[in-house]
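input
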Amino acid sequence: MNVREDLAALWPLFALRVRTPRLELVTPDNRDLLNLARAARDIQPVEEPRYQKAFLYEPSPTMERLLLQHHWRALAHWRPTSWDLHLAIRIDGVAVGLQNLWATDFATVRCVETGSWITRSHQAQGYGTEARAAALEFTFAHLQAVEACSSFIDGNAASERVSHKLGYFYNGRRSFSRDGMRIVEHTMLLEASDWAAHRLPGVSVEGATPDCLELFGAPVDQAAQ
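output
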């Protein structure tokens, strides 16, 4: 057994792997984290509005350190009642972005929220849509969620397009202050029936074992095989 397999025996998230025809989503290992810390320096031009988490815009090396801490904190605080899954987006074996899924009281609410980023050199090629579709395959087919939520900041047309392609509909908005400016955030919702009509073909999920699903508070008796 290699180190990842040894870890997976104790922490099943390390065995989780979602593949599409062009990419895969995996729980990051140390090599992935290093690549992500480097890739996050180049998400979008500095003159554009800040769409991602605030720490991703900090100067180096603060940003890289905060990215690592953010991932380690998610693992350390994991509970079936409150979890935040970080999945490295690998293209040709190299992590170039991050796909997140998180939920609170999933066993009761059965709703997952998603967010993601990908480096500029891999944007506008459909990878963001493919990564979200892969995450939704795990969300609906294995966690058996009834709905998934997403959001985008006013002006983030790329995120809005991804949600539309995958069948989300508008579900509300809110306003808040950031850097002395008024920011409008739009929320979108995808129900299980609408996901089925927009399901991406060719997605496979490995490692969604009963031991893994229990970590999410998901039902395991009828989980997809």
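quick obs: The helical segments are 3-10, 30-39, 62-76, 106-109, 127-142, 157-165, 192-197, 210-215.
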